[in-house]
Amino acid sequence: MRLPLTALALVAAFSAPALAETVYPATLAGHAYLPAMTMVLPPADAPRDAFLSGKFTGKARNEMPMSVEGDVGKAYGSHTTGISLPFVGQPVQGMSGFAMNTPGDGTYYVLTDNGFGSKVNSPDAMLFFHRMKPDFRTGRVERAETIFLRDPDHKVPFRIAYEGTDSRYLTGADFDPESIQFLNGEIWIGDEFGPYIIRATADGRVLSVTPTRLDGTALTGPDTPGTVVPAAAGKDFRVQRSGGYEGMALQPKTNLLWAMLEKPVLADDGKPEGNFLRVLTFDTAKGDWTGKSYRFRLSDGAKAIGDFNFIDDTRALVIERDNGEGDAAKACKPDATDLSACYPLPAKVKNIVLVDTASVDDEGYIRRIGHVSLLDIADPEHKALPGMKPASGPFTFPFFTIEDVVRVDDTHIMVANDNNLPFSGGREIGKAANNEFILLSVPDLLSAR
Q1: CA–CA separation, 111 vs 182, rounded Å?
Q2: Integer Cα distance of 308 and 248 in angstroms
Q3: pLDDT 10s digits, 53-98
Q4: Using CA atoms, how far apart are residues 221 and 241, in angstroms rounded to an integer?
Q5: Is 352 helix (H, G, I), strand (E, B) or coil?
Q6: Which of 136, 295, 263, 141 is nearest to 195 (CA)?
Q7: Can you give the CATH number for the domain in which 121 is found?
Q8: pTM beyond cutoff 0.85
């Protein structure tokens, strides 16, 4: 017999070992989406190069629009996604962060990431963020405004891809923006390549770019300008590729940014220093690091995090995930050779974790209070949209990268995925994932201490 989630939470709390973590129930309260194939035109003063994006995602330059279909990659079954590159315009894809504070007009600040996944293949992918308004009554997401990042005042400390232009718009060859916050009319962005903290005006003009320092030493990665080949992992750089600031929470009252690396830092031997992530604090008033850092322990099976946002003065939500994608009910058999109708690496760990930053042990670990599983969401009122739910069982959010979470009110949170257009599926084999937004009722999680 399958116990309901409320019963499972009690079992976990009273019968599990002392270090076990409580699993709280989650109920789907709303479901909306932005179609995968959603494009925006660059500003009129952008280089002509930016009007056709994704030209460098293959082995050679490709300027024939919509000529090469995307697929999820060999490790995930090489399923095609039905959407082809290059794109006319810029893809809105890749929801990679929610800001805790809102503009006050019913919209949320939402960040798009670097474009197509790497520094090398994204020089024509423009960087921008949005004001978006999900409507859980109609199931639609309104894109109210898109703001393009630019560097007219030459604040970026290295040569950018559009260096010689008057407009100096930023691209995915410059930064990989993965987390966003809104404070006192300004935007703060956490970048993965540097990793850097970027401060910008609300209309996208860069004000400052701050490199990272951990324990007084520069913290860099393989994509940091200045890192040259050959470079020894763990010695010449310590941040893993795609391991910079995936989550960056803004703490109320203190206005400190708690910047969390996506993956474990590398030790001198080039291997991860442990199954935990570094969290560094940045003083927005001083524009500098505080010198304090903490640790977030990953649960078994989790490989990275997706977002990080406070819900009050000390408690915060963290998305942790494995590298899986797709419904476990459609997992490939161990000896399968035909992977066309199954998921070789189905999703197994997709959690929203509640932590208490005021409770830190002697080793610097932030206390984990409990979590909800995004692979076991009750849907008694049938809120899931047609075509975006499992054939049977609970509602799931089985995407490779889930990178957005924010508190909505005392009982609800909102979660969204990064669909890596056109390289991720997750919801349906052979079809690119949409940008899905889900509203979850999680009163037990939000009230936990």
Answers
A1: 11
A2: 6
A3: 999 999 999 999 999 999 999 999 999 999 999 999 999 998 999 9
A4: 6
A5: strand
A6: 263
A7: 2.115.10
A8: yes
Nearest to residue 353, comparing CAs of 252, 214, 197, 249?
A: 249
Please tell me the predicted confidence (pLDDT) of residue 51: 98
Domain, as residue range, for 98:
5-447
> CA–CA separation, 391 vs 327, rounded Å?
10
Which of these, 145, 124, 142, lies nearest to 133 by C-alpha position?
142
The one-letter amino acid at 382: H
- Count CB-CB contacts under 10 A for residue 360: 16
- Among 173, 168, 134, 132, which residue's Cα sits nearest to residue 153? 168
State how many domains the chain has.
1
Which among 271, 278, 168, 176 is positioned nearest to 219, based on CA atoms? Answer: 278
Q: SS3 helix, strand, coil % of the chain, rounded to 5?
A: 5, 40, 55
Q: If pLDDT is split at 50, 70 and 90, which confidence band does 440 have?
A: very high
Q: Whole-angstrom Cα distance, residue 281 to residue 292? A: 6
| Three-class SS state of 443 | helix
